[in-house]
UniProtKB/TrEMBL annotation:
Keywords for this protein: Heme, Iron, Metal-binding, Monooxygenase, Oxidoreductase
Stored Pfam families: p450 (PF00067)
InterPro entries reported in the protein's UniProt record: Cyt_P450, Cyt_P450_B, Cyt_P450_CS, Cyt_P450_sf
Protein name: Cytochrome P450
An MF annotation (GO) of this entry: monooxygenase activity
Species in which this protein is naturally found: Streptomyces katrae
Keyword Heme found: yes
UniProt family annotation: Belongs to the cytochrome P450 family.
Length: 404
């Protein structure tokens, strides 16, 4: 598999033609597997013998996998996304209450307010350019989820730009020198520790302060490494994936104007757009890792114990066995699009899914209500695809806003 990633759909189609589970060679020459079929992935994600803790990956510890393996940063991460059983339940319980549907709905006015402010900025950027073009990712799709998650965590606004730069480096780390990746990881951890120290000195009504209170109140509940790891997960996953989701939805609607018309005419909803985008062009290509704790047979294919297995989210989204022979077609009226697995399944289902859905739905509704004539400024085929093994989107999204 290419460490630079790129658009995953052609590779997914080739692999899926061979079966719902495929053997692959991961970046760095490490043998692995990917689960591609919707039903197979759903089974695997919820299987009690598919672990997240890298101690179940022998090659990571016995010298088989080199120290500079480009995906080691994902395997070695600490937090609820790499924990199992009681540890996972303990860590998830500390943040879960902040992301319930009821709690997230309380954020709606603030998300709407922030979206409108950013659209003002997007309009100014377009007006100020010589050709009337502005990058929607830079001025809207990125700062909306970044602003919301940073406010939730009590992060000083001056840190936001650097947090994105560092998290983006870590996310695309399979395509840059390992030394640069490790330097970015160290700086990211140091910056998060600085943020935590500020909240410890001046607690507020934010998630970081609540996590610190849990740690300081009961040292067995949350270690310092778990605190930093949980904050890192919230900050990185809390904006990178939603950035890609919004970008992919806008790109899909601009290249499928008939589908946009259905929504603008009230024949489909913005929630339908979000569901179909998650299915058709999800924000995450292949997510590392799960490890069978015993030899495991998934949909007739044996995955040996200790194999690093990728979750093939974009592949499952276009599985014709579930979504029909036209699964490659973007259709906001498609029955069953909400069954997509882009937020995962089972115990590790994305805790931030309600927030991501809210942000994306508001972003699209506000954007196209204000600028119904918004369109891509260059042909879709000329948009530079993200050079990321994990993320699935474009690097930039230049648009013309049209008449309000």
């Amino acid at each position: 598999m290419d460490p630079a990633g790129g658009c995953p759909h052609a590779l997914n189609a080739r692999l899926r033609a061979e079966g719902t589970v495929a053997e692959v060679v991961l970046p760095g020459g490490v043998p692995g597997a990917v689960v591609l079929g919707h039903e197979a992935l759903k089974e695997f994600l919820a299987h009690p013998d598919a672990a997240k803790d890298a101690r179940h990956f022998p090659g990571l510890h016995d010298g088989t996998v080199p120290a500079d393996w480009p995906l080691r940063v994902f395997a070695n991460a600490q937090g609820m996304h790499t924990a199992d059983g009681a540890d996972h339940r303990r860590l998830r319980s500390l943040v879960g209450n902040a992301f319930t549907a009821r709690q997230v709905e309380r954020l709606r006015p603030r998300v709407e307010e922030l979206a409108d402010e950013l659209l003002d900025g997007l309009a100014r950027a377009a007006e100020g350019s010589a050709d009337g073009v502005a990058d929607l990712r830079t001025h809207f799709a990125l700062p909306l989820p970044m602003g919301v998650i940073c406010e939730l965590l009590g992060v000083d606004p001056r840190h936001r730009g650097r947090l994105h730069e560092l998290s983006h480096t870590v996310i695309i780390s399979t395509d840059i020198p390992p030394a640069e990746v490790m330097a970015a990881v160290r700086e990211l951890v140091e910056l998060i520790a600085t943020i935590a120290a500020a909240r410890r000195a001046d607690p507020g009504e934010d998630l970081t302060s609540a996590l610190i209170a849990a740690r300081d109140g009961d040292g067995d509940r949350l270690s310092e490494a778990e605190l930093i790891g949980t904050m890192r997960l919230m900050l990185v996953a809390g904006h990178e994936t939603t950035l890609n989701l919004i970008s992919n939805a806008v790109r899909a609607l601009c290249t499928h104007r008939d589908q946009l018309d259905l929504v603008l005419d009230g024949r489909a909803s913005w929630s339908d757009v979000v569901d179909e985008t998650l299915r058709w062009d999800g924000p995450v290509s292949w997510f590392p890792f799960r490890y069978p704790t015993r030899d495991l047979t998934v949909d007739g294919t044996l995955i040996p114990r200790g194999t690093p297995v990728l979750a093939g989210y974009t592949a499952a989204g276009r599985d014709p066995a579930v979504h029909g022979p036209d699964a490659d077609r973007f259709d906001v009226t498609r029955p069953g699009a909400a069954r997509n697995l882009s937020f995962g399944h089972g115990a590790h289902y994305c805790v931030g899914a309600p927030l991501a859905r809210l942000e994306a739905t508001i972003a699209l509704e506000r954007l196209f209500t204000r600028f119904p004539g918004l369109d891509l400024a260059v042909p879709e085929t000329e948009l530079p695809h993200q050079r990321s093994f994990i993320g699935n989107s474009v690097e930039a999204l230049p648009v013309r806003l049209g008449k309000p």
